[in-house]
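Example 3.2
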Amino acid sequence: MTHPSSLTPHPFRALVASRSFGPNCPNAVQRLVASGVELVANPWGRAPSEEELAGVIGDFDILISGTEPVTARVLDAAPKLKIIAKHGVGFDNIDLAAAKTRGIPVAIAGGAITDSVADMAMALLLACARQIPQGDRAVREGRWPRIVGVELRDKTLGIVGLGQIGRAVAVRAKAFGMRLVAHDVFRDERFAQEHDVRYLPLDDLLAESDFVTLHAPVTDESRRMINAETLALMKPTAYLINTARGELVDEAALVQALRERRIAGAACDVFAQEPPGDHPLLALDNFIAAPHSAGQTYDGLRKLGEVTVDNILRVLNGQAPVYRVA
């Protein structure tokens, strides 16, 4: 990939803001290049700010988006932009209304990291159940504690958001012998019947579950859906797992609930601010942290690249992207 200072003429030019696009999907990159697309690498080495992105986006036809803020101001500076192709499945960093108003399609890499994220959710669930990080830390410190965990069989897993990832988690959890309950505004009754999933209101799910795993998108309704009031509904023996978005959780309320042992523990791959710095959650022995890595597998990144490129090429060929969200 080139950089803004070394541009050469091409029919189409793409700014690769996502730092994970490219190295793990060489075939996808080659497909774009063969189609006449010049890929310009992220020159910042991090997610650019709104001001930085607005300063360069006017030269590009395509934005391969990561976590950078794609705001109305950025889009106003992008008269040539033909598509915002998200190299991922979350799109809360993109102003969808502004994109729609300007006629710029926004597409996500739907389904590409479903298995990767579902695997991570189960890994964090198991880490909570058996206190694996705590045991590892103890041994490294020269201690040999007797750590007592819990089995998964016959425990109730509450899945908040039964979309593609939530369903993949359900299949995995059922193999462990867990009971499944779910909450979602859109019900997949066929899947629920086939996999013995009971739909419940959120409050009832929280009260009944031994483990709660979040797989909902961030909306005005879901933002901070896990807060002091809803945490108070959970069992003192229950665990919370979040591999979706940090904004779903009121982190201050979670800190308080964990400190007071009102729930047994939590594991988060996502935070409201990333990286979280010296967040008080990180000082708690009943909290497990991960660096937003649920989708970061070689398999998932390869599939992300392929679906992202599929969306771009469809738009350049006058077709609608498959996973359009705006």
